[in-house]
């Protein structure tokens, strides 16, 4: 299996300090949540191509390209192959490439990426879509969270929690005057995801495209763990609901098979004890804060493989 040099060449990197639940560090390997504000995606729309049959792709060996943000790159998980993009050799794209015996594998996932960084550069990192070619047969895409500025959302939630630790101050601050600000951001991200998918099909008409959702960050039953994550008690279920809405939006996109990583990860959120959790609540030797650890990426890889086999 050949591996593209783009996963380790310094010219394709931009500095990424450590991340935390509080959002400290302006260029952190930022949840799926990193900080670039959503902007118009300057790529043309094209009709999706028809992917080659699975048997034909398997016989030739997959030419696999992984696109996405920090939830795909694996920041903080040893071993890091690209410290600028927070990319690990145990992220789910690497595990999938090994499992399918990819003939070629190019991983350009990068912490902090949003939809604008698919067709446009991310500081010194080239546009991720440039990794695609007409011979690409498999693409995974994990993006969308950073378009919501969820680093800013979580930071605000932590700050206002000190004012009303047992209320829902963050929810109230984002729903003033009856407007669901986060819901609006999610809705405005939908056409940007569509544009990215159209461009993938235009550049790689034979590729099967999988759109990978986000795993369960907080308890699915809405319970709080303020001793671990300093949100207000009532904001735990609100953040959970916003993540579910984001995943629902992704699942509704045409032109890709949606990969549900949320369902398999329920019960392994950041509130769970070490050994049970698949999401790290803070920076640790296992991974970046509020990101999947190696076990979490193993689960995400299993979900991708299950979708491939459908």
Main structural class: alpha/beta
- Spatial strand arrangement across the major sheet: 1-5-2-6-7-8
The tally of beta strands, per DSSP, is 10
Given the C-alpha coordinates, what overall shape results? Answer: globular
**What letter string, H or E per element, gives the SSE order?**
EHEHEEHEHEHHHEHEHEEH
Taking pLDDT < 50 over at least 5 consecutive residues as the criterion, the unreliable ranges are 1-52
Radius of gyration: 18 Å
Tell me the helix content.
Answer: 25-40%
- Taking the alpha carbons of the first and last residues, their distance comes to 24 Å
What proportion strand? 5-15%
Largest sheet: 6 strands, parallel
- Treating each run of at least 4 consecutive H or I residues as one helix, how many helices? 10
Average pLDDT across residues? 85
Can you walk through the features of this model?
With 310 residues, this protein is an alpha/beta fold. 32% of the residues lie in helices and 11% in strands. The protein contains 10 helices and 10 strands. The strands form 3 sheets. Strands 1-5-2-6-7-8 form a 6-stranded parallel β-sheet, sandwiched between helices. Strands 3-4 form a two-stranded antiparallel ribbon. Strand 3 and strand 4 form a beta hairpin. The longest helix has 23 residues. The relative contact order is 0.18. The N terminus is likely disordered.
